[in-house]
User: What shape does this take?
Amino acid sequence: MKIPHVLTVAGSDSGAGAGIQADLKACAARGVYCSTVITAVTAQNTVGVQGVNIVPEDFVAEQLKSVLSDMHVDVVKTGMLPTIGIVKVLHHSLKEFPVQALVVDPVMVSTSGDVLAGPSILAAFREELLPMADIVTPNLKEASALLGGLQLETVSDMCTAAKLIHDMGPRNVLVKGGDLPSSLDAVDIFFDGDDFYELRSSRIKTRNTHGTGCTLASCIAAELAKGSQILSAVKAAKHYIETALDYSKDIAIGNGFQGPFDHLLKLKSNIRNSFRKQAFNPANLFLYAVTDSGMNKKWGRSITEAVKAAIEGGATIVQLREKDAETRDFLEAAKACVEICHSHGVPLLINDRIDVALACDADGVHVGQSDIPARVVRTLLGPEKIIGVSCKTPEQAEKAWIDGADYIGCGGVYPTNTKANNITVGLDGLKTVCLASKLPVVAIGGINASNARTVMEIGVPNLKGVAVVSALFDRECVLTETQKLHGDLTQAAAMVK
Ligand SMILES: Nc1ncnc2c1ncn2[C@@H]1O[C@H](COP(=O)(O)OP(=O)(O)O)[C@@H](O)[C@H]1O
Ligand SMILES: Cc1ncc(COP(=O)(O)O)c(N)n1
Ligand SMILES: [Mg+2]
Assistant: This one.
């Protein structure tokens, strides 16, 4: 399988906000393979550039040959090209190994004001590289330098510059206005030789803008490699910059005035979630209340009234299992239950309906063997949420563990009216599954005040509690029944210890 491939020819930034490091991260974030030809190694941080060590042009040529003679590169993107010799070497390589598109970011001065490629480079840019480029992406200072010091202060000046640079031969020009002093928005001008496009995004208030230029150019290259048209590639890249800046506006890396931003925001948001993740507490399975709309209707109670009574009676986790409710009514009830549960520190799960769980920000979901697989539920809900799976066999328990579930429900232990045609596993089946399971287990199916102790007294360590439906909700007083069951379970737990 061929995958989209960008080759970046640029300098290394030890602080990893710009240069090669930004290019690698931007391409990774956009799902594109990125190879790297390094033209210079900079000693650089959030304060500025402390040193530059230029790679000899022969060795730049050697790197280019290694990559281009072996790999299929779709798009070449250039950043810091510190010498005329390196520009010439690149020009030569691109003649020998033509690619689908060339994106030129004419890096000259870092935002910290340090020179990365001197003015002597300008002639080589104009003569060798720009005529080959599909797009060139100067910032205000670079556009001005390319045009012999022309003053650029307004959006209209940027249009003039785009047109003049277009005359040097590139097919498209993007003049970037990140540094436009008077502008509330971040405005860039795109010119394709016929039309001007004013591309605006909100200007994010942050110190973390080091590397925006490199990232923008890499992202354009990545989108081109995936087959986008140039204008949509530029728009996608600009949108990505805006999102990444917004996401990273408060991160603190380094003590200087310009910090790097965070390219891999999607990935990081998962990692951050996993830092935040409170490990599921198996003790919550102790008295697990599962609602049933039919029963509550029969006794003239709303779901919320039933849940409140169960919690006050000592339920340690609640699952809403509303098979017949209209979705919108269910969601409203679920939102109210989330509030009640959270005010008591009790987790609330939703049976089967991942959409409802997401919409009401429930603590998790319980799924059966014929529902969406737990592995998919985990992807949809992220690492923070609780996932339970109904299992009858050790194999199903093993699979639930592999899929990233937090607990399993095992049953039916006894015959029950709440599930038609449900195979009963009995106490023996329960014990077998508990002994095999790597996850904590809650027993379910026909459990009530008269048999709960017997269930708990099978005495296997990872049986953490019982789940009940009718024993709480098919009764006149949910509060009393829950209190009674809680008392029995507490006694049984004391016996087992
Ligand atoms: N604070 C900001 N908020 C939103 N977008 C920005 C901000 N600063 C720069 N950009 C955008 O980042 C991209 C790079 O622009 P610029 O900073 O001008 O280039 P360079 O990094 O080469 O100096 C442009 O699309 C610009 O509009
Ligand atoms: C190696 C290298 N390449 C490019 C830039 C420009 O990035 P910025 O203009 O965001 O400082 C940089 N600072 N370092
Ligand atoms: Mg910048």
Notes: The two ends are 58 Å apart (CA to CA). Confidence is low (pLDDT under 50) at residues 271-277. The longest strand covers residues 33-44.
